Amino acid sequence: MEAFESGMLDLPDSCFAGDDYRSRFEPEAKQRFLDLLRERFNSGASYKGRALKWDTVIEQKAVELGRYVAGRVGRLDFSGPSPDLHKTDNRELRRQILGLSQSEALRRGIGKSTLHYLRKNARKKNSLLIYEKVHNRLCNESTPYRLGAHS
Fold first, then answer.
1. Are residues 81 and 96 in the same domain?
2. Of 114, 101, 113, which is closest to residue 141 (Cα–Cα)?
3. Is residue 35 included in any domain, yes or no?
4. What is the mean pLDDT of residues 27-56?
C-alpha cells in the first residue's frame, strides 16, 4: 500500500494480463517495489527483548511454527511483534513539500538544506523517509519554530 500511496507505483506502471483482472508491472516498477520491500525487511523490530531485522524475526517465527507442527511445543504465538505501519509518505505530503516556500519552511523550523533535500527526494519515486521532528514540523502548521531554539 505504501508503494501506491507514495506514488512509487502507479497504474501506468502496470498493464492488465487477461480477463481475470491480473496485472503485470513493468520491470522498473518491480525493481522499485523490491527495493522498498527490501528496505522494510531490513528495518528493525523488537522481538523477545532484542532489536532484530524483520527478516530475522520471520525466520524465527518459521522455526517456531516448525516446532509446533512437529509437536515439540504446545503453544504457538503469532501475536507479536507487530510492524509499525505509521506512514510518513503520501502524495499530499510530497505536494506540500514541493509547494513549501523558504520563508514558510524557516517559520516551521526547517532549515534551507533540509528543505533542499526534502524537495529533491519528494521529486523521486523512491519511498520518502522523513525524520519524525521534520515530519511534525511539516504537518503542524500552527506551531512556529525558531532555528536553534528547538531540541
1. no
2. 101
3. yes
4. 82
